[in-house]
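Re: [help] complex structure
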Amino acid sequence: MSTPTPKQLQIQNRELKILEIAREHVVSEGYHGLNMDRIAEEIKSSKGTVYNHFGCKEEIIIALAVQTMEKRAVLFQDAAQFKGGSRQRILAVGHANSYFFQKFPDHFRFEQMLRIDSIWEKTSAKRRMLVKSCEMKCMAVVAGVVRDAIATEDLVLPEGTSPEDLVFGLWSISLGAQTIMASSESLTDLGVKNPALALRFHIQKILDSFHWTPLSTEFDYDSIEDRIDREVLNLS
Amino acid sequence: MSTPTPKQLQIQNRELKILEIAREHVVSEGYHGLNMDRIAEEIKSSKGTVYNHFGCKEEIIIALAVQTMEKRAVLFQDAAQFKGGSRQRILAVGHANSYFFQKFPDHFRFEQMLRIDSIWEKTSAKRRMLVKSCEMKCMAVVAGVVRDAIATEDLVLPEGTSPEDLVFGLWSISLGAQTIMASSESLTDLGVKNPALALRFHIQKILDSFHWTPLSTEFDYDSIEDRIDREVLNLS
DNA sequence: GAATTTTTTGACGAACTGTCAAAAATGGAA
DNA sequence: TTCCATTTTTGACAGTTCGTCAAAAAATTC
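Output below.
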């Protein structure tokens, strides 16, 4: 239990190697580029060995999605600790989310695959637990900011609405907008010239409508973006 | 062109039959239940004939999604003509959307498959056009309601925001929320007790925040739901 | 160093997709 | 009716890929 033999280490490393290779395949050639024989070849083992690690192809996809979700969770945690008022902090999370989407579009694709029935159905209970715990971690972080806002009286939620309900709304609009952006080729033709900007605008509108102070009319939230870039996302 | 020979009729009918059978397969057994050999068998033709209609498996999926989108477009058109103020009409569309999701969850799944890269990639330009024109029809209907609202001065959009931008927001939050509802098993554990209600609430919040009158505080929009059920959805 | 357990291997069966040359059906024209 | 060109259908076939499993190899224990 406590002593990892060399053999066990080798196996652990191999698991990471498999995921690394699988990720490359999916990124460069899409879901169909993921091929068990080829993975086996590239890690210089046999197919049976790959199947020792992952019971089926779909388990690999889920494992990759979990990696992505963990990465996102860390980013959200950092963003939630942005130095500023509660509304600045929630917007930092939103900004981090947009950044994540634009900078790593492939990660978004893995999270999407997670939601495909035919993939989800085939995965083990154990791996589903991992997904669930990632979701809960993200939810806890963001709902935590909402709770802080309530505690500091920046926000009063209406009767019957929980912090999680509000997060659900923000989550929904972000996920939906990004899904459309990633898959609808013709957004411009549809009359939506700058969907990313529209998303940001809508999020502000939602927060305003919950009367989360300071309102977007009272504070220029665009002005803190540079600081978010530097302090949370480590950009130049 | 103008005279459909018996043979051509037979072919047209067969195409519908193929889609019907394919739909049953996907509904009852998921994406993996879709099988070209089985379809051929059930329409009492050979596989080659099926391939005469659809160049690949994915084309069938897209065709099914288009059927769904057309159904939705008709529903939206009806809803947009609801007798009432502009905000009532946009909410009728939202209500129709929720109804569609809850009543025909399978239809939602087809629309989701549309957004999967590995499926989309394989489809012909011709069929993509069909998807696009459905999207445009839906967008035009809903944006039309927004334009009516502007014309009647129920709504004033901020500088730089188009009616389509507003529709994009509503579309995003609806799609996102439904995606999460359809795929996240543990929403309750996450603290979201009634996601469908939360979605409705958020939509009202967005409309309020655009100051689309009458505001939800000035008019009891719950009270028109029975009428929407009867006049748009033909429910008892 | 022998015995036991764990891990690896790759040939194999099964399922499915998409192709294509040959066969059959169709629709005029003579 | 008969012939012929065109369209449509057929199903055997090649090609992929997944996942299995008995046997071999490696690691571990005694």
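The two ends of chain B are 44 Å apart (CA to CA).
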